[in-house]
Design goal:
Layout: H1 2-25, H2 31-49, E1 56-61, H3 70-76, E2 79-85, E3 102-103, H4 108-115, E4 120-125, H5 131-140, H6 157-166, E5 174-177, H7 180-190, E6 195-199, E7 209-211, H8 214-224, E8 238-242, E9 247-256, E10 259-274, E11 280-290, H9 297-309, E12 315-324, E13 327-334, H10 342-348, H11 354-363, H12 365-372, E14 382-386, E15 393-398, H13 401-405, E16 410-415, E17 421-422, E18 433-438, H14 442-459, E19 461-463
Helix pairs in contact: 1-2, 7-8, 11-12
């Protein structure tokens, strides 16, 4: 009876809303949009007056990579997911693709009209590539959103630096341009080597070069400018940045109405490898899970300042921050769920899955705020090992798999299958796989890590 009375009350409120909208249709500059709103409200009213519960929806743009875990989390909360694919073609590294309900082909108004037929409570992006479209859809559908003014800065690494600097958040010395001569003038005037050269927009460690002289900067620029990046876009600018040294961290967060919760922190190590275009590339070696209570307080505070400077009030974010001798400096910010399976690894180490927390933040603020009052859970040591290949060819067989799975700290792995092409590792996209280790004893994790590297040096993959 209580449920029926509530639906009746909501039905009456909807009737009032419809009357209000109808009263301004003739004055509206967009009659079609006002009529669409009326139709949507009438659909809701019909369900309410039949005392039927209404199915609610969440829109995810590109539910790929780790974001493929999000639909299941929303379904646990009673929501169905509408999956929007941000473009007709998707990058190969996304892996197995969830079927799209809508494919965006450039007509934003048409997509908005289609989505207005559903009772939607939230819109979010699953990948970097999807950010602009998700921001625009959330804004147009009047869902909780981060605004459009800094949408570009939330995607573009150089614009991120400028946004933080405007808000008096310390940043690395940086410059971006489409012109090689302007980049060379900047590095020559600065006279400090090495420098990092990278795309302004991409994902993972795609296109990151460490350059120690003018010739290497030229080579890196030519390998990037005008070329397709890992997300399928074209590099229209190249960024050059001071080479930061120190301890590098991943800080993953979830936000609800401007309140930020740290879900997990990783300290990761990188290594340098030679690349075919000359010079060296910085690639991931491994990432170590850090108990949040043991992380530097300055790191956590800097992460929250970064979110504020980029006007991130809702959703998940993946921040990469270097703790230098001068203090923390942003490497890059990515307003999305962390990739390479990090959420599942956090759960395996004993904490709640960040995709679950993200879903709660988007549609159940009460559950999210309950989390803010709960003590931090204890976690056991965990390490993500990024496999590195020095060879290229077609994989015939993967060696040492049985031994790998028998390691005391082994949790899971994902490596190239037989028949796939093995590439020389120059970035995260060309890594042949990952292994996640977790164990109560950190020395066991280190021991198993060293064993994996020994197998790798002996040839982890047998080639045709």
């Amino acid at each position: 009876m209580h449920r029926a009375l509530k639906n009746l009350r909501d039905g009456i409120l909807l009737m009032i809303s419809i009357i209000s909208v109808l009263s301004i249709v003739d004055q509206s500059a967009n009659v079609a949009e006002a009529s669409s709103i009326c139709a949507r409200l009438l659909g809701r009213l019909a369900q309410q007056l039949r005392f039927l519960p209404m199915q609610r929806y969440v829109v995810i743009v590109d539910a790929y990579s780790s974001a493929s875990q999000l639909p299941g989390q929303f379904e646990k909360l009673g929501y169905k997911v509408i999956h929007v694919q941000s473009s007709p073609r998707t990058p190969e590294w996304y892996g197995p693709l969830r079927k799209a309900d809508f494919v965006f082909e450039g007509n934003l108004s048409h997509l908005v009209r289609e989505l207005q037929q559903y009772p939607i409570d939230a819109v979010m992006n699953g990948t970097d590539k999807a950010l602009s479209l998700a921001d625009n859809l959330a804004y147009r559908l009047r869902m909780p959103n981060n605004g459009l003014r800094l949408s570009g800065a939330r995607r573009n690494k150089y614009l991120q630096v400028l946004a933080l600097a405007r808000n008096h958040v310390p940043v690395a010395e940086s410059f971006a341009s489409a012109k090689l001569d302007e980049l060379l003038k900047w590095v020559e005037r600065r006279e400090k080597w090495p420098v990092v050269v990278k795309p302004t927009e991409s994902s993972g460690s795609d296109g990151i070069h460490v350059c120690r002289n003018r010739d290497e900067v030229i080579s890196a620029y030519r390998s990037l400018y005008g070329k397709q990046n890992g997300d399928g876009g074209t590099n229209t600018e190249v960024m050059v940045q001071e080479y930061l040294t120190g301890r590098e961290y991943i800080v993953d967060t979830v936000s609800s109405n401007g309140i930020h919760l740290i879900t997990d922190i990783w300290e990761y190590r990188k290594t340098e490898v030679p690349v075919s275009t000359g010079g060296k590339a910085v690639i991931y070696d491994y990432a170590e899970l850090v108990p949040i209570e043991k992380a530097p307080k300055e790191l956590v505070e800097y992460g929250k300042q970064t979110l504020g400077a980029l006007r991130i009030r809702h959703g998940a974010s993946h921040l990469e921050i270097m703790m230098t001798t001068q203090g923390p400096r942003l490497v890059e910010a990515n307003p999305r769920i962390a990739g390479v399976g990090l959420p599942a690894y956090v759960e395996a180490a004993g904490n709640d899955n960040p995709t679950q927390i993200t879903a709660e933040a988007m549609v159940s603020s009460e559950k999210f705020h309950q989390r803010l009052r709960q003590p931090t859970k204890s976690i056991q040591p965990g390490r993500i090992v990024i496999l590195i290949s020095a060879h290229t060819g077609i994989v015939k067989n993967v060696r040492h798999l049985a031994e790998l799975q028998s390691l005391p700290s082994y949790q899971s792995h994902k490596v190239l299958d037989a028949g796939k092409r093995l590439a020389v590792t120059e970035n995260l996209d060309t890594s042949p796989g990952i292994v996640f280790l977790t164990h109560p004893d950190p020395t066991q994790v280190e021991k198993d890590y060293q064993q994996i590297r020994r197998w790798e040096s002996q040839g982890f993959f047998e080639l045709e």
